[in-house]
Amino acid sequence: MKVHAISHQDGSTSIVYVLPRASVDDLGPTIVYPDLSEELAKWSDDRKVTGVREISPSEIPTDRTFRDAWVDDGVIAVDMPRARNICRDRLRVARSSKLAALDVEMSRVYNDRVRQDEIEARRQVLPDVTDDPAIAAAQTPDELRAVLPAALRD
């Protein structure tokens, strides 16, 4: 098996595994690798290929948390601005479940103004979780993975 890192015009990176095919001719069985360029030519324009590099499977990061932020500049690494956006998207998902739970809680205390005010106060901090300064301050994927604003902790 051969493994290739494919760089795209938008800066993203794909990992492609090319499996060998066995063929038999007059000289006997042989192993043939399909031509990767034929397959890449079928990809749409939005996935325009800017580079292809054969890599070792050991070069592929094992942590896939920020997989959609991988870039290949001779080494597969995480593009931190993209990773920050992925982090914000994950916080939005976590925030939506918290907001839904607060909506249910609010519906149960319809005639208790003190509890309603308390719930509303908890609700007001949730929209700001994606603006947590720790997201911008994170310099490594590990630091970014550790970001969990207080409003989202159980």
Structure description:
The structure is a single chain. The protein has 154 residues and is an alpha+beta fold. 37% of the residues lie in helices and 23% in strands.
Cα-based radius of gyration, to the nearest Å: 24 Å
Integer average pLDDT: 90
What level of helicity do the residues show? 25-40%
**Cα end-to-end separation:** 45 Å
Element-level helix/strand string: EEEEHEEEHHHH
Outline the biggest β-sheet: 3 strands, antiparallel
Number of domains: 2
The shape, in one word, is elongated
Strand order of the largest sheet: 2-1-5
- Secondary structure class reads alpha+beta
Attribute tags:
2 domains; elongated; 154 residues; two-stranded antiparallel ribbon; alpha+beta; 23% strand; 7 strands; three-stranded antiparallel sheet
In short:
With 154 residues, the protein is α+β, with helices and mostly antiparallel strands. It has 5 helices and 7 strands; from the N terminus they run E-E-E-E-H-E-E-E-H-H-H-H.
Topology, element by element:
Elements: E1 2-8, E2 13-18, E3 21-25, E4 28-32, H1 36-41, E5 49-55, E6 70-72, E7 76-78, H2 80-108, H3 113-124, H4 133-137, H5 141-145
Antiparallel strand pairs: 1-2, 1-5, 3-4, 6-7
Helix pairs in contact: 2-3
